[in-house]
Design a protein that fits this description.
Blueprint (H helix, E strand, L loop, with lengths): L2 H15 L1 H13 L8 H13 L3 E6 L2 E10 L2 E10 L13 H18 L4 E8 L8 H7 L8 E3 L2 E3 L10 E10 L15 H16 L7 E8 L10 E10 L2 H22 L2 E8 L8 H13 L18 H5 L4 E2 L2 E3 L10 H6 L3 H23 L1 H15 L2
Parallel strand pairs: 3-4, 3-5, 5-11, 6-12
Antiparallel strand pairs: 1-2, 2-4, 7-9, 7-10, 8-9
The structure holds zinc ion (ZN).
The site of zinc ion (ZN) has 4 residues, from loops.
């Protein structure tokens, strides 16, 4: 048996040995959902566990109070591999994206690696990365250089289909504000300028535009202000849109056309438009060499790995931004029946089911084994970096 294989078996055994602790942590996170930037209890729970198992933990990291960095070092100089933990929940829905599994699997993999790291060269970091659900925690951490010393990063997302190479959509957030003129809605409507109608026209314009968008484009919005009283012509109305596509250039083109819909609505109603664009998540560039290693490791423990489907539906993630700065992997692991939607009650239940618990152990093992591969073979790490450099420059 090779040394690498032996280390992998030790790491996997360590994950199984502490199985009850991982399930307890995942269940505690699930039962106490905290939304973006407010993950104080969740971060503390994870930091406590890492510390108890021998990690040096920095609480508050990369410009975020609820982020953390936990470190363990090997015998000599070598690459730094980061395992990312997300632990934010969705407003009202709770852990319907299964981030309790993401967090716990990265912690479990980290602790398992800590037990074998003495036989490896390099470092393992467990990075707590808050606010994935719309807050862009990793973007803030990137701005604060939290990924500077990292050679490769990975995390596993629970899903309804197992695959290691799925991409994600480039996205941005558009906020629209229309200012009209208030007047009595019954006695003097001719004196008003209706800001709400401008928002409604924008939605109708976008819906007409939709017919002519490529299949990967996604435009979806909500009305955040629609007036204050029915007997007043709304003088202020606002909406938010998320605009996404597989490639940043096309996402930007669609964004410009959505803005034109809003401008047209402003002209039609006479309401003044003000808009702001928040640059969003970049598309994910899965490192193919890491993906191959990960798939082989998963297959070795009996996980069936699929290719993404040709018309695979995708969301966006701030891991996309990380993947454009360091070689990254964001595999998906099925914990729910094929076809189960993310961000649903069914997925929330799956995240705490026996399948969810088994999934978190498999996710942890995949990360531990792949990290062992990367830390024990400098040539492999060089190839990962070469592929990254070639992908990013394209
Ligand atoms: Zn998620």
């Amino acid at each position: 048996m090779t040394h690498t294989l032996e280390l992998k078996q030790h790491a996997n055994a360590a994950i199984d040995e502490l199985r009850d602790e991982w399930i307890r942590i995942s269940s505690t996170l699930h039962a106490n959902p905290e939304i973006a930037f407010q993950e104080h209890q969740s971060a503390a729970l994870l930091c406590d566990a890492l510390e108890a198992h021998g990690f040096a933990v920095t609480r508050g990291y990369g410009g975020l109070e609820t982020a953390f960095c936990a470190e363990t070092k090997g015998a000599g100089e070598g690459p730094t591999i980061a395992l990312l933990a997300e632990y934010d929940a969705l407003p009202k829905l709770g852990h319907a994206c299964g981030h309790n599994i993401i967090a716990t699997s990265s912690i479990a993999a980290g602790v398992a690696l800590h037990k074998v790291i003495g036989e490896l060269a390099g470092r393992v970091l467990v990075l707590g990365t808050p606010a994935e659900e719309g807050g862009g925690g990793k973007l803030i951490m990137l701005e604060n250089n939290a990924f500077d010393s990292i050679d490769a990063a990975m995390m596993v997302h629970p899903a309804a289909w197992t695959m290691t190479t799925r991409a994600s959509l480039a996205s941005s957030r558009l906020t629209l504000e229309f200012t009209g003129l208030a007047s009595h809605a019954a006695a003097a409507p001719e004196d008003g300028l209706n800001a709400l109608e401008a928002v409604i026209l924008t939605f109708n314009g976008v819906n007409a535009l939709r017919l002519h968008l490529k299949p990967d484009a996604r435009v979806h919005g909500i009305i955040t202000h629609g007036g204050t009283a029915v007997n007043i012509i709304p003088e202020y109305a606002a909406a938010q849109f998320s605009v996404r596509a597989a490639r940043p250039a096309y996402a930007d083109e669609v964004l410009q056309r959505v803005i034109q819909c809003a401008e047209a609505a402003g002209i039609a109603t006479g309401a003044q438009l003000k808009y702001t664009v928040k640059p969003g998540y970049k598309n994910m560039l899965p490192n193919q060499i890491m993906a191959r290693l990960f798939a082989e490791n998963w297959q070795a423990i009996g996980v069936e790995v699929h290719d993404p489907r040709p018309n695979e539906r995708m969301g966006s993630t701030d891991m996309g931004n990380v993947s454009q700065v360091v070689p990254s992997l964001h595999p998906y692991l099925a914990i729910a029946p094929d076809g189960t939607a993310g961000h649903s009650i069914e997925f929330r239940e799956a995240s705490i089911s026996p399948n969810g618990h088994e999934g978190l152990l498999k996710a942890a093992k995949g990360m531990a084994m792949t990290t062992i591969d990367l830390l024990s073979d400098p040539q492999l790490m060089r190839a990962v970096k070469q592929e990254f450099a070639a992908t990013v420059s394209n």
